[in-house]
Amino acid sequence: MRDQDEVRRLSTKVIRIVAANPGLRADADDACQTAWLEFLRRPPILRDSTRLAGWLTTVARRHALRAAEKRSRATFGDDAQLETHKRAESPEKEALAGELAAALWRAVEQFPERHRRMMLLLAHCPELRHDQLAAELGIAKSSVSKIRKRCLTALRKRLESEGFSYP
């Protein structure tokens, strides 16, 4: 118990000293932990046990400085690159999209085999042409559009019955 109290006391002191520098505040806790780990891995040769706090503070400050330096070296893209990235949706929109996707695939699972395969091909291989879809499904090329329309209509009705709507 006494050792734990001493560790807490020293850690608090080290963190306060490192965090006194505004540029190092964000890294003070991690730096203190890293200093303790370094101490445990290879304890320094200290002639006087009262110098442990100074040693920990020095090591923690160096680690915090390295972390702050790494952060400052981070490169940021130009505005043109930022515009090309897709903006993240809100958590609510992401949750609704996930629910819709789950409902969609539950509905597709209830389709007859050929219609289910049609929907899977449309979803996962949108580049397939009508003749390729017909060959994959073993149907006439002229039937692809009719079956596709029938599947999508049935899917829309099932999703609407579950409370989802399509704008």
Can you put this structure into words, describing what you see?
- With 167 residues, the chain is mostly helical.
- The protein is built from 8 helices and no strands.
- It has helices at residues 2-19, 28-41, 52-72, 79-84, 91-109, 113-124, 130-137, 143-161.
- The longest helix is centred in the middle third of the chain and has 21 residues, at 52-72.
- It is rod-shaped.
- The N and C termini lie far apart (65 Å).
- The mean pLDDT is 83.
Write the layout of secondary structure elements.
Blueprint lengths: L1 H18 L8 H14 L10 H21 L6 H6 L6 H19 L3 H12 L5 H8 L5 H19 L6
Short précis:
Helices cover 70% and strands 0% of the residues. The chain is mostly helical and 167 residues long.
